[in-house]
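Just scan this pair:

***
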Amino acid sequence: MTEISPAVARQYIDAVAVFEALEEAQDEAAQVRGGMYWHAGPAAAPDAKYLVRTTPAGAETSLGARSPETEAIYQRFTQRKRDSAERLTGLKAALDQHQRLNRALRVGRVDPLVVALLGRLASTHLSPHFRVVGTHALYAYEAAAGVRLDPDALATRDIDLLWDTRKRILFATQLARVDSSMLGVLKKVDSSFRIRKSQKYTAVNKDGFEVDIIRHEQTGDDPHPIKLSEEDDDFWVAQARRANVLLDSPAFSAVIVATNGTMARMHTVHPATFAAFKRWMAGQGDRDPLKRRRDVLQADTAQALLAQYLPPL
């Protein structure tokens, strides 16, 4: 592994600062979604006004008759909404500029498709239900450490998403709000994604890039098999051995950068958990020998990052 140059490090730090500020601004904007208006009173009292709060879905809630208190509520809300919109506009413009600089300075190394997929999960509020596991997690670790890892450790044409079955009701509710299926979410990024006939937990696009969705092994009355939606063509989630270790791992996240300069946050597992899991995989007798050697390489890589560049973890 090699350390990134001071110029690249400076650009990454500045870009992440803007990215994180935009994340905060988007959270703040979510608190003032919808609107407020003054609703006319009944025919018996035509001069009466009532403050009504609306949601993006069209629901309405009365906050009470017009009074100094409701006037103040209305003023605060409309001011917050204006301030939020102005802040979002400014930060989005700043992020666009930083993403152009990222590309010019070659800050990123991640496949743009991966960043677009993670960005789609974030914008649809599905990110909390998944963790990136497997090879792609190394991109989060190298970004946090400010290094470039050896290409041999990063070579892959698929991304593994570990789904948290414990939140499946919340997931189903949110998925229904944004799309009819998980495959539909992927298709908004690349319309060529299709579920593999022989491997229903995998979607593959026209370039052969695969997205696998896995879960921990079934325990107790935990339902299995599970399909992510009622749509005919959607993911059936596969059980993965010892995936509960990854699900229970301390969380780790970092902002990653694509080769085209775009950015996204990757949620994954703690590097120590990653290293230990890869060593366990390498010790399995039924593991493909070629994959076993890569498992060891990746475990060593994560361990070296922890020792040299990520000591606070």
Notes: The CA atoms of residues 66 and 72 lie 10 Å apart. The longest strand covers residues 251-257.
